[in-house]
Amino acid sequence: MVLIDQEGSYIHGSIKGNLVHLFRDVIVEGEIYSIANFEIVDNRTRFRVVGDNKHMIQINAESTVRPAPGQLPNIAMHRFDLLDFDKVPMRKGLDYILTDVVGQVCSEGEVTNKNVYDRTVKSLMLELQDLRGAKMRITLWGKTVDEYTTQKATILGSVIVGVFTSNLVKEYMKTTTLSSTTATKVFLDVGIDEVAALKTKLTSAELNDYWSRSLL
To answer: Matching InterPro entries, A to Z (predicted)?
Structure first.
């Protein structure tokens, strides 16, 4: 999980595996908590959700997690480390850091079941487009397929813009692609400037195309 404070700083937080059951029903995404008696440990050497931080928070058996008391501070719901498409290839083969991107879904494949390490896993390939028109393919796996399809069903209109977090950068058929991980989260139509800019550009382009065709 990613924790954000009222200054906008953020850090990766984790719960020791054998203690997850103690906090599963206590911590709810989007709520504000007061957390005490946690450990500060070195950040992971692989698959970092927050790549710039040298340390992370680890919740242990002595930790307490309670709803924040009194007047709640104004804390942002999300913070992303969005990487421009032209910089994504520089992370190819690097597994110490995971990559966040934002883009319009301009092409979508079909949900298929694939055999991965003797398990059947859902898979969905999308093609994303950024503000400059550059394109990047991303493959969603497992629960992220369900996150995407569930959120997509609630969106009105044909323009789908989303943030896809914590992806690995890979190469497929000599092309740089993204692949979701177990840490990946999907945020369609989330209220950030980058999404608004893409939607505005695409809406304007649709209107221009409509009027161009109307005048023919």
So the answer is: NA-bd_OB-fold, RFA1B/D_OB_1st
pTM of the prediction? 0.81
User: What region does 88 belong to: left with phi over 0, alpha with psi -120 to 50, or beta?
Assistant: alpha
Residue 188 belongs to a domain: yes
Which amino acid makes up residue 189? D
**For residue 8, is it within any domain?**
yes
Q: Residue 161's closest CA among 108, 82, 104?
A: 104
* Contact indicator for 214, 129 with CB cutoff of 8 Å: no
User: Could you give the C-alpha distances from 36 to 17, 29, 39, 60, 132, in angstroms and in order?
Assistant: 19, 18, 9, 10, 44
- For each successive 10 residues of the chain (216 residues), what is the average pLDDT? 83 85 85 89 78 83 86 79 94 87 94 88 95 94 96 88 94 91 93 91 60 43
Question: What's the CATH code of the domain at 139?
Answer: 2.40.50.140
- Alpha-carbon distance of 10 to 69, in angstroms, equals 20
Domain that holds residue 164: 85-209
**End position of a domain, from candidates 10, 34, 67:** 67
Q: Which of 54, 111, 106 is nearest to 85 (CA)?
A: 106
